[in-house]
Specification:
The structure holds 2 protein chains of 2 kinds.
Chain A lengths: L6 E12 L3 E12 L3 E5 L6 H8 L7 E6 L8 H4 L2 E4 L11 H11 L5 H10 L13 H14 L4 E5 L7 H18 L2 E5 L3 H7 L2 E6 L2 E7 H7 E6 L1 H4 L7 E7 L4 E6 L10 E4 L2 H10 L3 H4 L5 H8 L1
Parallel strand pairs in A: 3-7, 3-8, 5-6, 6-7
Antiparallel strand pairs in A: 1-2, 1-4, 8-9, 10-12, 10-13, 11-12
Helix pairs in contact in A: 4-5, 5-6
Chain B lengths: L13 H14 L8 E2 L2 H8 L3 H13 L3 E4 L3 E4 L8 H20 L4 H20 L1
Antiparallel strand pairs in B: 1-3, 2-3
Helix pairs in contact in B: 1-3, 2-3
The chains are: A alpha/beta, B mainly alpha.
């Protein structure tokens, strides 16, 4: 199989329902190649953590199917050995020193790379005798990352790893993350609200809103397919077929539209400009979802149609 | 090592920004034929830029014949874009500095200066092609 097109994470119509009614995530269909670095963005409570927890086997699928490195996520040790996970706020045992945690990690993980963990901690200036409770936010994140990478996972999932970090600590964390990812060809998925950081480090994107994936794909391709189009109202109201309008801002003498098209508009009366990640994410988050358009459609029926 | 930078608000895709930065370095003579570009891994771990972005930029530069990737060795500059010698570039730069000082003294801000430069270049190109 061609390494460039090998899929590390794949979901088809996957969903998780909390109780009988509340879907944390539904109809989620994704395909992410091995070695990709994916940004998961969306409002708080949109379903980002539900997705990550399903992929690491912490939450079962109520619908659809998931495959991570070819396996169905579960709590089986053979699966968990291949997956690294940094939960929100990097939980560490407060009374443990960094050296204790390395010892623990080595004892628990057959494929543990102690030299790599120590080298990473040294390059991040983390003292091994320091207790977890006394580490700074940046150091805690670096320790959690070093521990997650030392078990040599094939996939590394990180839930809001940057939230508590200052800009300098964020940059250092991301350098370390990318270094590990490239060195061991790890497939990475991280959720964050920091779009500027995500635009630098990610090559794939997932936008989640109200429990649904609104947009997913390769970041450069998505950016290339979307444009700002501005012009006089009589021009912007007559766009050719195949142009999907995602957002529209009306002004006195001109309108500004964010559109999805695969080729340039050959109308000199319209100005086309590129979009950035923030434009793209906001347009999809502000858009009403399929669920509100199709109110009343039973979810079970929709999910079945994805399978 | 070339210090790549990414402006995430420019609207230009990151790989295109890297391509533009390598071309700029080739035009200014900072990179010469035979020079080795940093590996995607080096750029990723030192500047926190996605390694696939770096590879995509290098592929584009290779397609344009500016660099060549050698298996197991890295990516090397193949062709310079330098249009002049470093000393004449420096001389031109000093003359431009004098002009910029005069423009500032006349009260122009950065946008005003760019407007004059762009308008003058358009007129100049039109006269040259007439």
């Amino acid at each position: 199989m061609n390494a460039a097109t090998e899929i590390a994470i794949e979901t088809v119509g996957a969903g998780h329902r909390y109780g009988h009614q509340l879907w944390g995530l539904r109809g989620c269909t994704l395909s992410l190649p091995t070695g990709s670095i994916t940004a998961v963005v969306g409002a708080n409570g949109a379903g980002k953590t539900t997705l990550l927890n399903m992929l690491v086997g912490l939450l079962p699928a109520s619908a659809g199917r998931l495959r991570v490195v070819g396996e169905e996520p579960s709590s089986k040790p053979a699966f968990l050995a291949r997956i690294g996970f940094l939960a929100q706020d990097c939980p560490l045992y407060k009374e443990f020193s960094v050296a204790d945690m390395l010892h623990f990690g080595r004892a628990m993980n057959p494929s543990w790379d102690d030299d790599m963990a120590r080298a990473r901690l040294a390059s991040a200036d983390v003292p091994l005798d320091r207790r977890a409770g006394k580490l700074s936010g940046g150091q805690r994140a670096q320790v959690a990352l070093a521990l997650a990478v030392a078990k040599r996972p094939q996939v590394l999932l990180l839930d809001e790893p940057l939230a508590a970090l200052d800009p300098l600590a964020r940059r250092e964390f991301l350098k370390n993350l990318l270094d590990s990812a490239v060195a061991s060809n790890i497939t990475v998925m991280l959720s964050s609200h920091l779009l500027g950081d995500l635009a630098r480090v990610c090559d794939h994107l997932i936008v989640i809103s109200e429990g649904e994936v609104r947009l997913t794909g390769e970041l450069d391709q998505l950016l290339a397919e979307h444009h700002w189009v501005s012009g006089a109202p009589e021009q912007t109201s007559r766009l050719p077929g195949g142009v999907e309008v995602l957002a529209e801002y009306r002004h006195e003498r001109h309108n500004r539209l964010l559109v999805r098209i695969d080729q340039p508009l050959l109308n000199p009366a319209l100005t086309m400009e590129p979009v950035d990640l923030e434009d793209l994410v906001l347009a999809y988050l502000e858009r009403p979802g399929e669920s509100s358009e199709r109110a009343g459609t039973p979810w079970a029926a929709r999910e079945a149609s994805h399978l | 090592m070339l210090d790549f930078r990414i402006d995430t608000t420019s609207g230009q895709p990151p790989y295109a920004q890297l391509v533009a930065q390598v071309k700029q370095a080739l035009r200014l003579g900072w990179l010469q034929p035979g020079d080795k570009l940093p590996t995607a891994h080096q750029v990723a771990s030192s500047v926190a830029i996605n390694p696939n972005t770096v590879q995509k930029a290098y592929k584009e530069l290779e397609y344009e014949g500016l660099v060549v990737g050698k298996a197991g060795q890295g990516t090397f500059v193949q062709r310079s874009l330098s249009q002049s010698t470093p000393s004449s570039l420096a001389a031109l730069s000093r003359r431009l500095e004098r002009w910029l000082a005069a423009a500032r003294a006349a009260g122009l801000d950065e946008d005003g200066i760019m407007d004059v430069i762009e308008a003058t270049m358009r007129d100049f190109d039109r006269q040259a092609s007439a």
